[in-house]
Amino acid sequence: MAEASSLVGKLETEVEIKASAKKFHHMFTERPHHVSKATPDKIHGCELHEGDWGKVGSIIIWKYVHDGKLTVGKNMIEAVDPEKNLITFKVLEGDLMNEYKSFAFTLQVTPKQEGSGSIAHWHLEYEKISEEVAHPETLLQFCVEISKEIDEHLLAEE
Nearest to residue 89, comparing CAs of 98, 100, 102? Predict the structure, then answer.
C-alpha cells in the first residue's frame, strides 16, 4: 500500500502578479483561447472541444511547448468558482498521460492583502505511472512563466 502512495504527489507555487484576480481568472475561464496570444512561445493554441468556455464539464484542447517539445492535452473543466477566482482542469488525454495515471491543475487567484495586484496560486495534483517518472517541477515552472506573461499581456491591454 505504501508503494502506491509514493506515486501520488502535489506541487504548488504562488506567483505575484499586477493584474486583478478577476481579470487573471477571466483569462482562463472566459478567454483561454487568448492565452496563446499572451504566451505565443509557450502556448500554441487552445480549442473548445465540447461545451462552453468556463463551464464545468467542458473539454478544452491545449497545445503547448513543454521541455522543448510540442505537447497536446485534452482537459475537462472540473470546477469553477468565480467568487474565489478558481478553476480546475483535469487532464483526460494527451502527452502527460504517458507518464501520469491522473493529473489536475488548479489555479486560484486572490487579491493581495495590501496594495494592488494579486497572487496566482497553482496547485498540481497527480499520480505517476511509476517511480521512474519525475515529479512535474518543470511543469510547475511553466505555470509560473505563463502567469508572468499573461500578467504582462493583461497590463498592456489596459
Answer: 102
For the stretch 84-124, pLDDT in tens is: 999 999 999 999 999 999 999 999 999 999 889 999 999 99
Residue 126 has pLDDT above 90, yes or no: yes
Q: Does the model's pTM come out above 0.85?
A: yes
Q: Is the CB of residue 75 less than 8 Å from the CB of residue 91?
A: yes
Q: Are strands 69-81 and 59-66 parallel, antiparallel or unpaired?
A: antiparallel
- Exposed, middle or buried: residue 111 (CB in 10 Å: 0-12, 13-18, 19+)? middle
Please give the Cα distance from 142 to 103 (Å, whole number). Answer: 15
- Which CATH number does the domain housing residue 25 bear? 3.30.530.20
Q: Is the distance from CB of 80 to CB of 53 less than 8 angstroms?
A: no
> Per the structure, how many domains does the chain have?
1
Identify the domain containing residue 59 by its residue range.
Answer: 17-149
Could you tell me which of 153, 126, 151, 152 has the C-alpha nearest to residue 6?
Answer: 126
Asked whether residue 50 is domain-assigned, the answer is: yes
What tens digit of pLDDT does each residue of 4-39 get? 578 999 999 999 999 999 999 999 999 998 999 999
Is residue 7 domain-resident? no
